[in-house]
Predict the structure.
Amino acid sequence: MKATPHYTTTSFVPEDEHTGALLTLKKYCRDAWRHLCIIEIFWTNRVRTAATDGVYIYINPQFYVGLPNDSQRAFVLGHEVLHVWLKHCQRGKFYRERGYFSSLIKFIHRIYNEAADYVINKILVAAGLEPIEGCMLDDRFGMNDLADEVYITLMEELANQPPPPPEGGDSDETESGEGDESDDDTGDKSATDDDDSDDDSDDDSDDDSDANEGDYDDAEEDFNQPRPGDDSYEADPTDHDGHDDHLEPIYDGTPAEQSEAERADNDEIEKSIDKALDEAEQEGRKVSRSMSDAGSRQRTTGRISGTNWTEALATVLTQPGRNGRSYWGKIQRRAFMLTGQVRPTRKGTINRIGITEDISVSVDEVKRAAFDTNAAIMLDVVNPASGTLVMFCNTKVVSAVEVHSGQELLDAETPHGGGTYMSASLDYMEECGLECDIHLVFTDGELDLDDCQKLADNGSILVLDGQPGVYWMRNIEASGIEYIIMD
């Protein structure tokens, strides 16, 4: 892996304890054990319990050895692996950098960590592993929930809580903002309070506290750094609140070099997961690539009929909201491996729409304007709960914007550039941890068969700016993807 580790190994655990944990994990959660074989573990006293940055795993050896049995140690190992599998660190990074979770809900790093823990702890318990004392479990949340959905529930609860009463009655301190959290119903503290406030129950009580444990929702707050202090610092493994530390991967070099290294690591992780999928199939747990039909999407392939293209577009955007639609992406396939259950997105409503626009010079700009106008009208009618993700793509996603109204879609600036590989937008959504109930791809249709097939497997729908040439049309038909041809 190319990421720079946050911490280095300072001591090792006895072989008997670790071997027993590995064998237990293999017995009860074989898929997590498979992936653990390629993940490097750093044994460090600079985390209280365990941590991951989505690439490496960090475990406090004193905490690990101090657990009462192999099942609980296997629970800790599986817990960190599942964070990597379900890309919780990458999702959190995306929301933090964006500065908000959705237009109506801000992003608090600690709360998102808790939401992720609620889900994966249920997966591990269902697998037969013994949870560690104090780990986060809640009967309201199950192993088939998405961390994002749990996060919304937790944030709604926080928003409905009355603000805590002021402590000490010191009006000067309250006005200065130092140590005061009562004016934020989520308990979030600002970046300016980082060095002064020491009363956050989710942080350590000293200045060596891991910045990732704070309630940071400031997009400029940099918590992507190792724990402050020198190498002699040791965390207290008995001082934890039932969950681990969630970090972000660190890459050296220029921004371009960092992006390239991050993509290389993501590809390596994806290969490991794909290998586990293949092995699961061989063992009899069919996770067929054609399981996009397992969610009973009940939609035909080929051209979408209608009196005209605008009617066909309206049918695509409104019918799933009435009849319900299942989405089967990589996150769902991974969850199926771990739980044995198909997990669809919400039915009966549309949570998020994705729109990918081809920015190559061969696209008809008049048709683009017509598509944007009609899509904008439909967005205001459908009003997806989490907005619409618009991605401008050539061979990669050049820019992306989340819009919450038709006018915002029309106001979005369209870049231009050569090349065509529309399924790059699927990789972008995967890296960001985003899932769309509907994915429209506006393009001139000059797509390779591989590109078409990936879009078809995802359930994407092409909106073509005209009739493609015979060669390109052959690729579209061979993939079985649904498509609309603009009149």
